[in-house]
Amino acid sequence: MGIKMVDLTAIILSKNEEKNIEKCINSIQSIAKRIVVIDSFSNDATVALAKQVGADVYQNPFVNYATQFNWGLENTSIDTKWVLRIDADEEFTPELCDEINRSIPNLKDDVTGLTINLRVIFMGKWLKHGGMYPFKLLRIFQFGIGKLENRNMDEHVQLTQGEIVELKSDFLHHDFKDLEYWIKKHNWYSNREVMDYYSNRNLPEDNLKNGWAIKKRIMKNGLYYKLPMFVRAKLFYVYRYYIKRGFLDGKEGKIFHTLQAYWYRFLIDAKIYECEITGTRIGEQGDLK
């Protein structure tokens, strides 16, 4: 796996990621002392491919991303100073790896987390507009000081102490699966969003030090969910596609914002409405089937 320059363990969650797992692992070989894959019992070649390119693979039943990742923190014998959270459908650019190798050894003692810019690739196109770039996500943190907050969706890293430094380079969300899978995944996501709507919407943002994440959460819970049901999905689409100029990303931008900003948010509202009129609640989802 080559010489590692950073005292860092990468944790990757997987389920049937044979199309993505190799590119993900290969993209971080130059920065990670150790790469750990937490697999929720894939029935494709994910596990074999991950082992083939040098990852340590563990398997654990999936409840949600936060529970699975935190299980990995506690049960995979991590002995490095730093931990990286990276999804199987993501990859690091060479520029980012170089910046990490140069930056981490020179950080001040009070720095315990690093944010990275996310670049979303959809249907092969980098979405530069519509509020899609850059997402500043806290993905690298000191072991023992951070964990994922207990949520079903939009879970962020919580730090118990320290300061955060922003890196300048990008990592990519580039899923090689097709649009049918994207739709199935977002239908699954919508159930998790509804669960959090009822259980976590008003919880305090304890130890959520990433300013971008706090702003996003406040906008979602303090503004978006205060708007009328169903109307808010259309307004969100107008905001993203027209005001934030998502139309500049061409046909891919049109497809993405219609599905992600409108259809997905409308679907969540429809499920909330169904819960209200039936008096029911959505139960635990498990992994994506």
- Broad structural category: alpha/beta
Fill in the CATH topology of the largest domain.
Answer: Spore Coat Polysaccharide Biosynthesis Protein SpsA, Chain A
User: Total strand count, please?
Assistant: 11
Main sheet record:
9 strands, mixed
In CATH's first tier, which class of the largest domain applies?
Alpha Beta
Portion in helices: 25-40%
Mean pLDDT over the full residue set? 93
First and last CA, distance: 32 Å
Order of helices and strands: EHEHEHEEHEEEEEEHHHH
Shape, principal axes of CA atoms? globular
DSSP strand content: 15-25%
Runs with pLDDT <50, length 5+?
Answer: none
Number of domains: 2
Enumerate how many helices there are, as a single number: 8
Radius of gyration, taken over Cα atoms and rounded to an integer in Å: 19 Å
Descriptive overview:
With about 290 residues, the protein is an alpha/beta fold. The protein has two domains: about 10-175, Spore Coat Polysaccharide Biosynthesis Protein SpsA, Chain A; about 180-280, no CATH class. The protein is about 40% helix and about 20% strand. It is built from eight helices and eleven strands.
Give the structure's gist in a few sentences.
38% of the residues lie in helices and 22% in strands.
